[in-house]
Amino acid sequence: MSAWRGGRSALRRPARRAAVCGQSVISPRIVGGNPAPEGAWPWQVSFMENNKPICGGSLINEKWVVSAAHCFTKGYEQYDVLLGAYQLSIPPSSLVVTTVQQVISHPNYNNIDGSPGDIALVELKAPLDLNDYILPVCLPDSSAQFSMDTSCWVTGWGQVKDGEALPPPQTLQELEVPLIDQDTCNSLFNSAPAPDLPQNPVLDDMICAGYPEGGKDACHGDSGGPLVCRCDAGWTLAGVVSWGEGCAEPKHPGVYTLVPYYANWISDNVPNISFVAYIGDQTCDLLHARQMLLC
After folding, report:
1. CATH number of the domain that 48 lies in?
2. Which residue is catalytic, options 223, 242, 267, 274?
3. Which uninterrupted H or E stretch holds 167?
4. Is residue 223 annotated as a catalytic residue, yes or no?
5. Count of domains for the chain
6. Residue 49 lies in domain
7. Which of the residues 34, 76, 223, 267 has an alpha carbon 20 to 30 A from that of 170?
8. What sections of the protein cross the membrane (predicted)?
């Protein structure tokens, strides 16, 4: 990480952009756990410790990131925060490395896998200059309901298989996943029970995404990263990578913290944050800061 900081001044910075959420200069084109096009996911954040990706996150404005509470149970002083990254082994000109000012974890999180409240707000040390490679994702308001036939995307630098790290040059991975409703997801988990999981482990503040047959999923190191769905106002943060039983196991889809469930909590803690309201299937209107009402 120190090498990136030392070489940063020699790299050409991309042109600044206004803070419009959910916009990407490049659309995703590859399905199935493949390298993402550079710049496709400009809100993607990596929390690094000793040059290793520990967790992901999603930029929501110039100074705040949404991630998972379980990423910060041991503190945050040890983390470097990467934005504008693509290949972790080859720092691009868009790369910005910063640190954490504070972390606000939801009070319901109890430091147990599968706990409710696995969401955290991370304040960065200083506001960022936004550009084509560093942009915020849109936040859904508390009324948002995502259609279960919606295909969404999960991204990160986590393991490619359980116990197998992403190989160099550590290119950001993307995977298109269908959403799964709570009842169906609980039925899947109950049909292949794990000894450390209760009955119906998927709670009201969670959403599932993935494939019942397994084979494709988020994995270790992707925690805290984005699950985004497209609407006409832009890409919207539906979920935060939270927990799962192994990686890509059959009948054990990925479980994500449901972001609309915590919209009011986010609004209470992040100054002047804006949301989008879902009016219909994949249709949403941008709401001004703290308005939380349908247009």
Report:
1. 2.40.10.10
2. 223
3. none
4. yes
5. 1
6. 2-12+42-135+262-271
7. 76
8. none
